[in-house]
Design a protein that fits this description.
mainly alpha
């Protein structure tokens, strides 16, 4: 209830109370009835005040009921959201387990990326990263707190994939397992400082992926996924 309506209602209620008390006293005492009969204007004034107060009371009651209903709706929404956070869906549980399997500490992706030196890699061993960026592009989680964390991991993986695709070139190896290498300082316009910059960029992106991998497992377990 805003300030104006609140104080208008209070003023109207007080006037109505005074009018009602005055009217009752006036009609209860014979002398007062005679006096009111000789002064009808006062009686009408009291009646108008009483009606006004009644109308304001109805308005206030309706406004209070609407505010209570609005607060109840907000509380119901908050409870529903809390339930969704505390009680993960079966779909979320299934997708989270699949996500953990892809990024398991003993899995191929994590095992190989943990020794990645930022300058050379085997295509076969980074295929899980490329497959993840392709197959998990449209995956989402129902849990409103977990979804942003997953989205952050996916973006970090995609940035690492784009770095590899943009900087690595097949230099040797077999057709089904090329060895990719980034151009060294002798092949770059910026020389070895540019090589170091590009290499550090790749290592930084990798570090972000590995950090988020740990965070997403921790957050998922905490939320019962």
């Amino acid at each position: 209830m805003n300030w104006v309506r609140k104080h208008a209602v209070i003023a109207g209620a007080l006037l109505g109370l005074v009018s009602a008390v005055t009217g009752i006293v006036g009609w209860a005492i014979p002398e007062s009835r005679d006096w009111l009969a000789r002064n009808p204007g006062l009686g009408w004034t009291l009646a108008i005040f009483f009606v006004t107060a009644t109308i304001w009371a109805v308005i206030w009651g309706d406004g209070a009921a609407q505010e209570q209903s609005a607060r109840a709706d907000v509380l119901r929404e908050e409870v529903a959201e809390l339930k969704s956070r505390l009680n993960p869906t079966e779909r979320d549980k299934r997708k989270f387990q699949e996500l953990i399997d892809v990024w398991a500490p003993t899995g191929e992706a994590v095992g190989y990326l943990s020794i990645f030196n930022g300058s050379q890699w085997q295509g076969r061993h980074v295929e899980p990263l490329y497959e993840f960026c392709s197959q998990w592009r449209e995956v989402f989680f129902d849990n409103p707190d977990f979804q942003p964390i997953y989205a952050e991991l996916f973006v970090a993986c995609r940035e690492l994939q784009e770095w590899m695709s943009g900087n690595g070139a097949p230099t040797r190896g077999e057709a089904d397992n090329f060895i990719y290498t980034i151009a060294d300082g002798s092949e770059r316009e910026g020389g070895w400082p540019e090589f170091d910059r590009v290499r550090e960029e790749g290592l930084s992106l990798l570090g972000r992926v590995m950090e988020l991998r740990k965070e997403i497992e921790r957050e998922g377990r905490m939320r019962g996924l």
